[in-house]
Write a structure and sequence with these properties.
Belongs to the ABC-3 integral membrane protein family. This protein is an all-alpha fold. The protein has a single domain, classed as ABC transporter involved in vitamin B12 uptake, BtuC, CATH 1.10.3470.10. Helix content is about 75%, strand content about 0%. The N and C termini lie far apart (about 60 Å).
Length: about 350
């Protein structure tokens, strides 16, 4: 009887919280329909409304993934996305397990958010407590997450093993309105947090010692960065899958570093490259009847190769300017500085 009361309560609370985002989704549907009438593209046909949500999710990931990935790449933490993706997989397994065993009725993506954020904090705490390098703590968390997910999936509890492929490899057609609304909420939270903490994150990224001397809590901002990474990973997992999600954090940023002159310019260029990969990848996957995540990654790698070639050409012609100094603006905490990007 208690389960019968808990599930509707959870569903009702979640739906109430996400209600404004459903209005955004309805507005997005209207925009896509207008674009369909203008272009006649089959991809945008109202018969394939799930593609509207896939495109929206892809565009959001194309912004937040390189936004966070730029900080990670410059801190040599490119592989943390892989570690958190595997723990997010464990979070999905936890959600499916709870739904199968006690009929909790919770979205696996929500449990993935919780588990991935806990894992992100665990990576930082292991490094802080044991003085181990970050790659050691990432390896421990990655192994633990994947082992936990595999164990729960191996338990035959009411069809628990059904539907795992969509989480491993992503699927354009399985982005439900609820999951799209959750992604929009994550998108707003990530962008707002980076906007508010940009100076501190930039300072910590390029010189932790100087940041600590200036009064910035390095550990606290490191934790913020890994938690934001966890949110990006869970959001991108819907269309990219656990196995490929780390690519969107790294590949566009790697391409942007070949063309950019500053940290800020690198963020904007990486976003453009990521959006190009997402839109081309979704289009090719739809018309080629292929899985979206792998195609998006292949397109992103192709874009990266083109960026490398263009960067080499610029260097050969002598038209590539010397990188500019990135200025960190004064904030309330008094964090002031200048770093080479």
């Amino acid at each position: 009887m208690i389960d019968g009361l808990v599930v509707p309560l959870q569903t009702g609370v979640l739906e109430t919280l996400l209600a404004p985002l459903y209005w955004v989704l309805e507005g997005w549907y209207w925009v896509m329909i207008q674009v369909y009438h203008l272009t006649g593209l089959e991809l945008l046909s109202p018969d394939y409304r799930f593609m509207y949500r896939a495109i929206l999710v892809g565009l959001c990931i194309g912004i937040v993934a390189p936004l966070i990935g730029t900080f990670l790449v410059h801190r040599q933490l490119a592989l943390i996305g892989d570690a958190l993706a595997h723990t997010a997989f464990a979070g999905v397994a936890v959600g499916l397990f709870l739904n199968a065993v006690i009929d909790l009725g919770v979205s696996p993506y929500l449990t993935a958010v919780v588990v991935a954020v806990i894992a992100a904090l665990a990576i930082e705490l292991i490094s802080e407590v044991t003085d181990a390098y970050n790659d050691v703590s990432m390896a421990i968390v990655l192994s633990t997450g994947f082992a936990l997910g595999s164990t729960l999936i191996s338990i035959n509890a009411g069809g628990l093993s059904v539907g795992i492929d969509q989480y491993l490899f992503g699927n354009l057609s399985t982005v439900s309105p609820t999951n799209a609304a959750i992604l929009l909420a994550l998108f707003v939270a990530i962008v707002a947090t980076v906007a508010l903490t940009r100076n501190q994150l930039l300072y910590v990224t390029f010189d932790e010692t100087a940041a600590a001397v200036s009064g910035i809590s390095v550990n606290w901002y490191n934790r913020i960065l890994v938690m934001l990474t966890a949110l990006v990973v869970v959001g991108a997992m819907q269309i990219m899958g656990v196995i490929l999600v780390a690519a969107m954090l790294v590949v566009p940023v790697a391409g942007a570093t070949q063309l950019s002159r500053s940290f800020t310019e690198s963020i904007f260029v990486s976003v453009v490259l990521a959006e190009l990969a997402v839109l081309l990848g979704i289009g090719i996957a739809f018309y080629g009847r292929a899985t979206g995540g792998p195609v998006i990654v292949l397109v992103a790698v192709a874009v990266y190769v083109v960026a490398v070639v263009l960067g080499k050409i610029q260097t050969g012609l002598g038209t590539r300017a010397t990188p500019e100094l990135e200025t960190i603006e004064t904030d309330d905490a008094g964090a002031v500085g200048s770093r080479e990007s």
